[in-house]
Structures are given as C-alpha cells and as structure tokens.
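My current task is to audit a protein record that another person submitted. Alongside the sequence sits a line of tokens, each denoting a local backbone shape. Where you disagree with what is written, explain briefly why. This is what I was given:
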Amino acid sequence: MASPERFASLSAGLADAVGRHADFAGIVLLGSASDEASDRRDEWSDHDFFAITREGRGRALRPDVSWLPDQDRLVLTAREGELGFVAVYDDGHVLEFAFSDASELAGALAGAATVAVDDEQGTVARLLAESRERAATADAFEPVNDARLVLVKLLIGVGRARRGEVLNAGDFVRGWAVRLLVRVIRGRQASQSTSARDTIDPMRRFERDFPEWAGRIAQASAQPVEEAARDLFGLVRELEDGWPEFPTRAADAVAARLGWA
C-alpha cells in the first residue's frame, strides 16, 4: 500500500537503478505502474515490470537483487519459477517482476506499459512491441470450447470431492471452472466488456464489466464444493438459451452422471 508519492519514488528508483547498472538493457513498467494506466492506481496497486538484462547476462545476475531500491526497507524477496520474482517492503508494497534477457521472454504478454529505460539498440521497446502483439492475438475467446471445458472441470471436481479429495476438488470447481466460465461470459457478451478490462487476464476487473454475473459467481463459489459446482453448472446453462452451439448433450450427460438431472 503506497501513497502516490511513494509509488512515484519507487518507479524512479527502479529506473535509476537499472539505468546505472552496466548489465541491464532497460526496464518496462507494466499495468497500473505504467503511465498510460496510472488512472487505475489505488492503494493496492503493485509494481509490475520486466527488468531486462543484456543478452547472456540474465542467468548470472538473477541470484542478486541488490539493485532494487530501498534495500533497507525490503522484508521479503522470493522467486516464482525461473524468471519471476517478488519483493515486499515494510509498508506492504509489492514488486512483481520478470528478471531476464529479452530472448528469455519470447512468450511474454503485455498490455498497458511504459518503457522507463532502454538501451541504444531499443531492446526493451522491441520486446514490448512483440509482447503487445502476442497479447492482442491471445485476446480472443472460444466460448463454445470454454463452455465444454467448464462442464469437464465441474464433472471432475465433483468426482474428486465425492472421493474425499476436497482441496483438489475445490481447485477444479472454484479455480478452473470459474476462470473458464468468466471466459465464456466475456466471449458471449463481448460488447459489455469495457476498456478497463485486462487483455491478458480475463478475470481482472470482471466485477466492473459484469457486476451481476460476478456477484452470482462469487456467491456460488463461497459454498461447499459440490454446492458451488451445482450452482456454477446452473449459471453456465443460463447461457444456453439462444445459443445453438451450446454443448447441450454434454451438459445433460454431466447432470445425469452427478445425479443433478
């Protein structure tokens, strides 16, 4: 939780640290940390960014995050996979970042972003342009296929719950099925999605675009696993009316298998 002044100070500190480091190509601030999405910032906004090293230096540099600003205020740093890192300051402010060569981020996606530091070859600007192009291509929904997958995840989840694997079942129902249901709704009702939506993560700001659906999904998910699954099943079937491609036979089969017919 950072004040606007604290947020700006950290942005400047990151850019300064990267700009002064001989082994860095640059840094791109992402999401609400960028200039173009600064209007989305609030007290819970984090710093998301790509810290780009000069080619071939990423692997050697990754064990060392001493370049992060305000070292005396860091209370936690951790890795998420090979390239991902998080850091937390004593005021609860979070940094989430990829720390790598540009070539190691060949599959990266980016939406709102600001190049804060770049090298003389424009490495970071080129990476950002490629990441945005991939994000635009990926920003498409296949509601028929996603609806089929909702049914599969609910079927498996309830089966796991009845077997006694409640934690795993919850992941299938409240995790996989919910994410896919959100994709179905965004795909079927695309005109209701606003410019505030996240082109990378359809779950982000879903409540802003679809408040009624979001409330009902949240209410369903708050229940025990099987009750949650049954209510989510009911929600996806509400989309069936007027949708000839809806997997009706599959939905009927799932309902029959689970005794919901």
